[in-house]
Amino acid sequence: MQLKRVVVTGLGALTPIGNSIQEYWDGLINGRSGAAPITYYDTEKHKTKFACEVKNFNIEDYMDRKESRRLDKFSQYAIASSDEAIKDAGITHDNVNKHRVGVIWGAGIGGLETFQDEVMYYAKGDGTPKFNPFFIPKMIADIAPAHISMRNGYMGPNYTTVSACASSANAMIDAFNYIRLGMCDVIVTGGSEAAVTIAGMGGFNSMHALSTRNDSPETASRPFDATRDGFVLGEGSGAIVLEEYEHAKARGAKIYCEVGGGGMSSDAYHLTAPHPEGIGVIAVMENTLRDAGMTPDMVDHINTHGTSTPLGDVAELKAISHVFGAHAKNININSTKSMTGHLLGAAGAIESIAVILAMQNGIVPPTINHKVVDENIDPSLNLTLNVPQKREINVAMSNTFGFGGHNACVLFKKLVD
Q1: Catalytic pick from 165, 184, 257, 409?
Q2: Which of 131, 219, 243, 277 has the most CB within a 10 Å radius?
Q3: How far apart are CA 108 and CA 235, in angstroms?
Q4: pTM to 2 decimals?
Q5: Whole-angstrom Cα distance, residue 66 to residue 180?
Q6: Angle at CA 73, nearest 5°, toward 68 and 75?
Q7: Which of 305, 370, 406, 409 is catalytic?
């Protein structure tokens, strides 16, 4: 069977540094931090009092107020980014077969705010189980792609992938495979998350996973820096329209790039910690290169998982050095989480968008907030520190890893007819 080619024809973003693709890109190349004191609730008793919140978002720009009350914030974010991506792709009911258009979405947690609020409301009562009838439909992780599907009438595959912080990368890989196997013409994919809540922040704090740099939130996410002390929680959504190449050409679609391959692996090591030698990360990058039919020396840019945790950053860079050998020093490596924070299940989507835009514009966004060299990191690696760097990018990869040892990687390449 001849596998079909898959291309990117639409992008949409709602992030802590910009509420559209253009705003997001401007934030990336200007090294803008999305971290600030939390505005959603009183943080007085919390260890971490800041996060990367989405700013100036109004769901009533997308739907009426009554309808919006039936959607958790993570689904609202999904609607916003998917609307932008679908419009960007120029998809209409007249130029696609709705039965061959799917929605495969990623969410690591789903409707955490809805769950938190309903349970807290119940706990304040007399024990009578009084819950909102929309409690379950708002909370479940699969509901975001359902809303995208119903909103647009898409009747192809429709589901959510859940693999913690690798969720949206896994969603993209599934979408890629459905299309190249000929099962769909178009799939709206990506992910969304909205975990900046009392429960979300409290839960990650209890694991000692979050930075507690309350005196300087904007510099707290500092991947690869020796003084890093944990990740900064972010929220938002990223949407990518994947399309079969001949289908895209036939309708005259704008094409950003081609999806070259995708890889997955498991650390099989620890509930939350990465393997110190990065063996699962080595495997996922090798699997991706093999799937794409490429050799390590062909890669120009890697957007790392790079969460700003003491163990994770070192393990990932060790894995990159192992896979790419002497060529590793020629790769522009970065972590856009230094600006957006960690969007959990949506991370793979917004970071893949960053890779696609870097390829299109010939500019690699910086890893900001780096001041102190970590002696455990190979100094020959180009981590794109503090300022963006211009370079031609023909092949780029996006790494995304999740609690439980889930690893996913997606490779993009410039389209060659």
Answers
A1: 165
A2: 243
A3: 12
A4: 0.98
A5: 40
A6: 80
A7: 305
